[in-house]
Amino acid sequence: MHINELPTPTLWADVDALEFNIAEMARRLPGKRLRPHVKAHKTTELAKLQRDAGHLGFTCATPKELVGLAEAGLGEDLLLANETVDENRLRAMANSDARVTVAVDSIATIDAAARSGISECVIDVRVGFRCGCEVEEAGALAEHASKSNISVRGVMGYEGHAMGVVDVNDRRNLVEAAMLRLLEAHEIVGGDLITGGGTGTHAINTWVNEIQAGSYVLMDTAYTEQQDQPFKQGLFLQSTVVSVAPNFVVCDAGLKSQGMDHGNPTWHEGEVLFCSDEHTNLVPTSSLKVGDRVSLVPAHIDPTMAKHQVLHLVRGNEVIDAWKIDLRHW
Amino acid sequence: MHINELPTPTLWADVDALEFNIAEMARRLPGKRLRPHVKAHKTTELAKLQRDAGHLGFTCATPKELVGLAEAGLGEDLLLANETVDENRLRAMANSDARVTVAVDSIATIDAAARSGISECVIDVRVGFRCGCEVEEAGALAEHASKSNISVRGVMGYEGHAMGVVDVNDRRNLVEAAMLRLLEAHEIVGGDLITGGGTGTHAINTWVNEIQAGSYVLMDTAYTEQQDQPFKQGLFLQSTVVSVAPNFVVCDAGLKSQGMDHGNPTWHEGEVLFCSDEHTNLVPTSSLKVGDRVSLVPAHIDPTMAKHQVLHLVRGNEVIDAWKIDLRHW
């Protein structure tokens, strides 16, 4: 099927870019040096390509992602890099076939995990502005976990505040300050895992021993401003021009079809004016008519993927496959 | 079930508010004066309450919404208030049991509708910054539709640029200017329908003969700033505190669980700092611990509803029902 036959709005991935990105990251961070984060793409079939590239462990943001990977046979070493006290969901993870490790940062999260049959954890240390315990609490939490029959595999710290910083030196300074705190906690807690990082810091975070990158496969426009990113834009939002005004055209990919938290999408063939619920208004550099196709680049892939049921795989102009975005919702 | 037993993040509607809003709007715009827009809630069960309140016609933004309403027996008079040239979807609408009217604003959209067996349309006139033809084109398009065996029921114009304006006089001036253009087109085109408007302009748009409001049922924080809105906040995003820091708490309702195009959610019990993919950081006015529940008010209901599978119905603290948000996707 030609890409222009797809009903719109719909997502498509450039297979060449996707394969390049996976291979390039596997070259930079082979095997266990990368624990791919599936929250960015929420697609089991894509995780399989990452597994085939040599990464056997995965990072998840939700129990649903983790259980989904386990059911797909990708459960060799799954980390829920997030806190939960939902015991039904913790039990579902514990009862899966996977090796399951959860992030904990409080007595409450450890107790919920213990009651649900979870047997391994990492101590999540706050090195930025999200979850995590203070460095000073890490030792006592590790002790509480051990007493609760949960093995402590190490520490985790996510430097989310550094991830999108464009200047590489500024970014490195933020990462270093964050990671020194993480290593301080690791000195107390011990364990094999020092886990953190993401696409934005994958090349400069040399303090952790595994990187939790996910966006690199499909890429965000935010990251493409970073000079040290080798990855190619892989995700596009296909739309159809449905209305033509004297000064702009309107396509059928609005804000319900893409994440808006990083702002408007970009477009290679003109200017993006604004998005409304069902539409995006564009000023094309060359004349467009009703029915013409327009591919936008969503500003943030994670929430964009989470809005769609299907990711189409495109090589050239040919749709060669369609993958279910099967790890969505909660 | 108590509301605090719901797995999070999840949406819930305050049934008292929802019933009040539906009744109040039916009092203000009874029967055919309102053609409820389902794009805001995408929920057939909710549309049935609107039907029970006396509104037999509905407005849709997508063919999927329209076909879904038709299948649910709500097809007495359905308007696709949007342009499409997707002939498969147009045919699916034409083949439904519903009375189907589509918006057209170009020769291409009329021809696609004609080829697909659509038999009624409204001429969509650009009175704002989205779809619609120029006033001067309306007559020729109506003629082309008639020649293509599509009856022209009248005109449509959506004054989206006025919808969120807080000051009622500013808003009225914008609506008046837009609607005078619409009436100019109606003088040429004729027909029974002069359709447009929304929740933000429902009380001041006296030029149309039916209002396409949808948000009033669940309400947006944007509209609650408008002094002339009688409607109550009906939609909430239930979340769980998963991490507690010295200066803030982190709950599990992030930007994947709510529309971000109108900005951060609001919260009645403290300050919202920021949203990340899976989390929202909050500064509570009184101390919160891990496991406590927090209900946020999403800034924009339309894209928020589109992200969830289920809407829980809550009276007091009791979950009395769960409705599938069944008109999502495309």
Give structural attributes.
330 residues; TIM Barrel; alpha/beta; eight-stranded mixed beta sheet; homodimer; Lyase, Ornithine Decarboxylase, Chain A, domain 1
Estimate the global geometry of chain A from the Cα principal axes: elongated
CATH C-level category of the largest domain in chain A: Alpha Beta
Write down the oligomeric state: homodimer
Strand-pairing-aware structural class of chain A: alpha/beta
The CATH architecture of the largest domain in chain A is Alpha-Beta Barrel
Strand content of chain A: 15-25%
Task: Predict the CATH topology of the largest domain in chain A.
Answer: TIM Barrel
Termini separation of chain A: 33 Å
Count of helices of chain A? 10
Low-confidence stretches of chain A: none
CATH homologous superfamily title of the largest domain in chain A: Alanine racemase
Number of strands of chain A: 15
Overall pLDDT of chain A: 97
Order of helices and strands of chain A: EHHEHEHEHEHEHHEEHEEEEEHEE
Number of domains of chain A: 2
What is the CA-atom radius of gyration of chain A, in angstroms? 21 Å
Approximate helicity band of chain A: 25-40%
Main sheet of chain A, how many strands, which sense, barrel? 8 strands, mixed
- Which pair has the most extensive contact? A-B, 57 and 57 residues
Folded structure, characterized:
The structure is a homodimer. Chain A has about 325 residues and is of the alpha/beta class. Chain A is about 30% helix and about 25% strand. The first copy, chain A, folds into two domains: about 5-10 and about 230-325, Beta Barrel (Lyase, Ornithine Decarboxylase, Chain A, domain 1); about 15-220, Alanine racemase (TIM Barrel). In chain A, β5 (about 120-125), α6 (about 140-145) and β6 form a beta-alpha-beta unit. The model of chain A has no long low-confidence stretch (mean pLDDT about 95). Chains A and B meet through β9 of A and β9 of B.
